[in-house]
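Practice problem: MFS transporter
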Amino acid sequence: MPLALLALTVGAFGIGTTEFVIMGLLPHIAADYGVTIPTAGLLVTGYALGVVIGAPLLTVLGTKVSRKRMLMLLMGLFVLGNLLSALAPSFGLMLTGRVVASLAHGSFFGIGSVVAAELVAPDRKAGAIATMFTGLTVANIVGVPLGTFVGQAVGWRTTFVAVAALGVVGLLGIARLVPAMPRPEGARLRGELKAFRNPQVLLAMAMTVLGFGGVFAAITYVAPMMTHVAGYADGSVTWLLVLFGIGMFLGNLLGGRFADRALMPLLYTALGGLAIVLALFTVTAHDKVLAAITVLLVGALGFATVPPLQKRVLDQAHGAPTLASAVNIGAFNLGNALAAWLGGMVIAAGFGYTAPNWVGAVLAAAALGLALWSAALERRTHATGADAPAAEAVDSGARVPVHH
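Answer key — structure tokens:
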């Protein structure tokens, strides 16, 4: 593994920790600022929306900057946002710090995916992307429970200082280990935008929104589901989330391993399996052991789609992958926000805490339908012997170099 990938993974670990650790610290933050839990929940919503907005915005602003320098600037922004969160005297400033940190999230993973893919041979690209995303999944196994423990024992501000320190380590690692990668000639903003004229890019992003939305429809409400339906104690929820994180890690590992060999069959299997498991979750949620196994499977099947979907966007965007890759990271968070909202609606409508699982199953099944449609369009294109017009337009720019 190139050492540069390790630097990207450290950055991903810090970002994953700050994204998810907030959920375990919400009661303490709400108490310190004297706000309600729903109001403190804006720290989660604000972060997700910041990712959706920041992914395309900062990527566009960085089109004239080398990818290595842009990654360093993004990690600097991440450090600044977490320090602001740690030191914020008011809830408003705390929220501002969360949004500042989140702005770096989408662009970092988007540009990082492109850089990771460039560091290895063509047949190892998905594996390299998965290696970087390992930092995000390991954050849920180690960073989030550890950050929650530190926040509860010493104070939540200490957690954000520690995350900022992780960001500094990632920044220094990128500066030291990532090779200089100048922006390819011809990779202007107009070329980047042309990638969105390719229906395959849009279909891959729609799969991302729906497929990952299926995961978060269930996981957003896993705490009340496990305590009120499965019968777990409140203190057990943290360990169930660790189990979910282990599933994410394993799924990401398998996704990276097989996406380079059989990308579309992997998507069919993962999305179809996810739809079935989420539908069964409405039943298994009533049993402690089966519920725990299901939480693990939801994490595994959900994250098995991440490397292939990200690689699918990179492949279909051709010579202008940077903006499309970053927007796809925003699509993951858009799916999170959409699914959390829909799951909340069915609970509020009186259908119970297991109802979001049905929402997730429908979303995952819809993503599977889009995957099948995407493959059919691709076969039709190959049968006619014509390349997609958008691909030709984008390919008129220089291709991204691959470093072996």
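Discussion: The chain is about 80% helix and 0% strand. Students who identified this feature from the tokens alone can consider the problem solved.
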